[in-house]
Each structure stands twice: as C-alpha cells, then as structure tokens.
Amino acid sequence: MRILAVDPSLRGTGFAILEEIGTRTRCLEYSVVKNPPSLSQEGCLVAIYEALSAAIERHQPTALAIEKVIFVQSYATAIILGAARGVAVLAAAQKGLPIHEYPPKRVKQAVVGKGSAAKDQVAFMIRALLGLTETPPSDAADAIAIGLTHLRTVASPVSKSNLAALAGLTTSTTSPRRK
Question: Could you give the residue numbers annotated as active site?
Fold first, then answer.
C-alpha cells in the first residue's frame, strides 16, 4: 500500500509518501511546500496543488490521509486552512483516491502515545520509528505521522467503520473517478 499523507497549511503544507509492504513501512518522500509571506493566497493554493499533484504523479499512491480540522483560533484561520486543505483533497480526488481524515490528537496518540505531544516529540518519534538519518521538518513530520496513523488504522483488526462509529476517530470518503 502506498499513500499520500498531508498536513495542510497555507504557508507550510507538509506532505509525505509512505509505502507499506508486509510489516515494513518506508517513507519514499517527504517535503514542505513553503510559501513566502509575499505570495498571495491564490498563489499559495496553486503551489500546494501543483506540488501534491506532482507527488501523486511520481508515486501513484492509492489513498490520501489528511489531518481533520477540529479546532482553529478564528474564522479567518479556518477559512485559510480550509482552502489549503481543499486543494489537497482536490489533487487526490482528481485521481480518484479515497480520502481518510484523522484528528490531530489521534495522530499524536498513535505515534507518540500521548494526544497532547509537542511537535518536536512527533518529529523525534518519526525519525526513530522509520530509522531516518535526519529529523524531518515539523510540518513534514506531522504529515508522516498522519500517514503512519492511517497505515496502523487500516492494519487494525477493528474495521475502519467500527472504529469511526465507536470512537469518532476517522472519517473516510471515496472520491468519484474522473471520466
């Protein structure tokens, strides 16, 4: 199984391509789409869309795992984050990838063992779990953590639908294939 995992943000969208073969998980690529403050919101959205579309073309993932938005500081932040998240979902939906969402606390719990873990703890654990030679930037580490959460959820003996119904931890939508 190969997945695209995304931690959306207008100025620093982290993404990763993870591959699981048997019991081995590898990170094939990770990066952060860094958009400078001088770039317009529209320009940022185009940059995010193009980077994710290119990663999908390079690696041919079978699903998107993305952070679910559950709390933001303001309406303006929610709108901006929603736009960044929207272009990530669009890039995946255009290729017919199913979309899987995970709340931040669930991701931190799955990777660090504590739902209130700090960003540096998540990055450290990602490096340790995957045997990386360097610690990824925090936005990329968060994306990798989202991907690992998805892979662990899919591998769980509890079905995804039961997990969602019992704990409200994940939602899944399938994108229609484009003609």
Answer: 7, 67, 139
